[in-house]
């Protein structure tokens, strides 16, 4: 079983939909520890991604992901634009000319993207950032690949990992970004960037079932 180009495109459409629906929720999370604009930024960025999808949907997966990353870089404000943009641009590097992805290739895509975010943001596990979800999700996909699970089963497992990881940011003290200025007061709030990654993983799992 593989994840094909059409499912990747569907994933991005689903991301556009979820960030429209959850914009206020994400902005509410960001209001507690940030600039109160994360939901608005993600909604704006993925709305632009969705606008461009019809013109690139017949391209290879790497092209689609790179275009997505460049669009997010251009349209998402704050730290989210560079970080989510970097994720897709780095993910595109290992999916060039691909029309479909095996589970191992999907793992490499997520891992490369996550490493790009880590390098760009200089974040480490436990810093209360989106990396606290991307990295466990990548590890989960690697383990599922080693166990020869189907992509659908692997992504279901990754969703469970992502949900736990996003929730775990509540007890963390932020060490990066605006939230870090709050010190111990950042404890007790779920990180909005990590929550956005959770939504993206959930949308990928849904697309894989279509």
Automatic annotation (TrEMBL):
Record protein name field: Dihydroxyacetone kinase ADP-binding subunit DhaL
Pfam families: Dak2 (PF02734)
Domain DhaL, residue spans: 6-206
One cellular component term from this protein's GO annotations in UniProt: cytosol
UniProt keyword terms in alphabetical order: Kinase, Transferase
Tree of life domain: Bacteria
Signal sequence segment: none
Any single biological process term in GO: glycerol catabolic process
Gene name for this UniProt entry: dhaL
EC number of the protein: 2.7.1.121
